[in-house]
Amino acid sequence: MAIEILDVGAEQADYLHDESRREGHADQIAFPRTTEEVCEALRMAAENGWPVTVQGGRTGITGGCVPEGGLILNLSRMAAFGQIAGDRLTVQPGATLAEIRNATEGSGRFFPSDLTETSATIGGMVANNASGARSFKYGAVRNWVHALEVVLPHGEPVRLERGVHRACGNVFNLGSVSGNLCAHLRKCAQVKNAAGYFMEPDMDLVDLFIGAEGTLGVVTEIEIMLLPKPGQMNGLTAFFDAEERALEFVRFLRGAGRLPRPVAIEFFDSRALALLRKMRAEHPAFGDLPALAPEFDTALYFEFDCEVPDAVAEEIDRRAIDCWLSEGEKEIGILKNFRHAIPESVNLIIGERKRAIPGLTKLGTDMAVPDDRLEAVMRMYHEGLAQAGLEYVIFGHIGNNHVHVNILPRSLAEHDRGQALYLDWAKQVVAWNGSVSAEHGIGKNKTAFLALMYGAEGVAGMRAIKRLFDPAGRLNPGNLFGNGN
Ligand SMILES: Cc1cc2nc3c(=O)[nH]c(=O)nc-3n(C[C@H](O)[C@H](O)[C@H](O)COP(=O)(O)OP(=O)(O)OC[C@H]3O[C@@H](n4cnc5c(N)ncnc54)[C@H](O)[C@@H]3O)c2cc1C
After folding, report:
1. Are strands 81-85 and 88-91 parallel, antiparallel or unpaired?
2. Going by DSSP bridges, is the β-strand pair 88-91/109-110 parallel, antiparallel, or unpaired?
3. How far is the centre of ligand 1, averaged over its atoms, from the C-alpha of 197 (Å)?
4. How far is the CA of 223 from the centre of ligand 1 (A)?
5. Which ligand 1 atom sits nearest the alpha carbon of residue 340?
6. 128 lines ligand 1 (CB under 6 A)
7. Is there a contact between 217 and 283 (Cβ–Cβ < 8 Å)?
8. Secondary structure percentages of the chain, helix, strand, coil, to 5
């Protein structure tokens, strides 16, 4: 059956933006349900010279799935599941993280990736090499993908299996595409990284597509790996009277080598806690959030997949002013809502401000630095923001030295000041051998950062790969390299 291609009208307005609130435009939209339909749509696009933008759950925050004309290929209806086979599960790309959790429930196994946003699709997660709180123990999505089916931009499907389809040195052959990988990419091995293509000699070719932000092909099937479910989970939220003491506690949790490693270590600065108090008081939708005492300045959430070690309990008594314990997935889930409420609140506030000043956007950082730079990076953020007089909150994956600074500009002048500050920070983070994007990707909004991180030579190496797969630059135009793919 031929795939249905619809004209984009007012009723498709939702498909023209993602959670970054970047607005795009498109002529047509298709909702394929099978790999064959994706192949057909891509062949039609090739024949007609249409640009194609791939979409999953549109929860991205860098504009990656926001179209710039042409055809939208929305994969949200391509969401079927295979059977769990041992420690593997095959899924179509439109399955959401929440659906994957449901599908594995009761199997004794679980999928270790745990983004805060559970309506993200597995295709979007693979395309962005996404991660989450538990990446402190389990790493990014890349670690949990065994095989992919990908449709190349001209409509050719290929299957890639870890350990089977590999480059030979820097040379690779994949379906009708062959060429050389870029051998001299800057590495930042000590930090989480989701910026640009992953390339190294003898690599598994599946890794070229993970984190490629849909610029090299459309992911149409994913074989994910599952782990045995731990017998118990304990989540602790410890509150401190100063940020300094919370950072010392992070060092204790990470450095105590003889203790079990926490699964996650998450951070909430004083402004994030203040925002939660305010939203709880003013917005009915946030009324279920737990009350936060006024003396709580900073909070850490950390999780163990075993008993809480005695040494940790003692250290909490010594350093924290209060601590909540949540046992098991259900109670932990309630606390996750608490975490999710921060970016949701920020988006709500920006949405309201945008009505008066349409050009405003949230400025959200996503950078990670090596362990020895944790205090320095936090100092850099606070000092820069105080000097610029900007409104902000800081929260996120502090176990990996990867916090999100969310700047909430109140005017276009503040927006510009925030952007300039962000660029200065990115330069410093790169100088510290960090990453400009640890999990959200580059998309269309952060393309200037790719050159900052990899230099002109590194970007040229990535562009050369892009040209091998997509000489006309029609798939996800604007992503990674800006216009002029
Ligand atoms: C409140 C909130 C919390 C978040 N928390 C996290 C977090 O903890 N960790 C994290 O990593 N991210 C987080 N994100 C960001 C977002 O959820 C991730 O980037 C996610 O991976 C996007 O998935 P999606 O299905 O929504 O993809 P989309 O937004 O639809 O697309 C993202 C990119 O993937 C490409 N793409 C999508 N599907 C495919 C496919 N099948 N084949 C090829 N390319 C494809 C798109 O073209 C685009 O470039 C959060 C976002 C929000 C709004």
Report:
1. antiparallel
2. unpaired
3. 16
4. 18
5. 1
6. yes
7. no
8. 35, 20, 40
* Ligand 1 touching residue 152 (CB < 6 A): no
Ligand 1 within 6 A of CB of 364: no
Query: Whose CA is closest to 94, among 146, 154, 54?
Result: 54
Q: Which CATH number fits domain 87-229+462-469: 3.20.20.140, 3.20.20.70, 3.40.50.2300, 3.30.465.10?
A: 3.30.465.10
- The candidate with the shortest Cα–Cα distance to 342, out of 399, 417, 289, 265, is 289
- The tokens describing 240, both together, are 């401190």
Nearest residue (by CA) to ligand 1, atom 4, is 117
Q: Is 440 in the pocket of ligand 1 (CB under 6 A)?
A: yes
Q: How many Å lie between the centroid of ligand 1 and the Cα of residue 265?
A: 22
Ligand 1 atom, smallest distance to 53 CA: 47
| Ligand 1 centroid distance, CA of 58 (Å) | 6
Question: Selecting from 3.90.950.10, 3.90.1150.10, 1.20.810.10, 3.30.70.2190, what CATH number does the domain 231-340 have?
Answer: 3.30.70.2190
Q: How far apart are CA 164 and CA 152, in angstroms?
A: 19
Report helix, strand or coil for 194: coil
Give the residue, by CA position, lying nearest to ligand 1 atom 34.
124
Per-residue pLDDT of the chain (485 residues; tens, 9 = 90+): 589 999 999 999 999 999 988 889 999 999 999 999 999 999 999 999 999 999 999 999 999 999 999 999 999 999 999 999 999 999 999 999 999 999 999 999 999 999 989 999 999 999 999 999 999 999 999 999 999 999 999 999 999 999 999 999 999 999 999 999 997 788 777 899 999 999 999 999 999 999 999 999 999 999 999 999 998 999 999 999 999 999 999 999 988 667 888 999 999 999 999 999 999 999 988 888 889 999 999 999 999 999 999 999 999 999 999 999 999 888 888 777 888 899 889 989 998 998 999 888 889 999 999 999 999 999 999 999 999 999 999 999 999 999 999 999 999 999 999 999 999 999 999 999 999 999 999 999 999 999 999 999 999 999 999 999 999 999 999 999 998 54
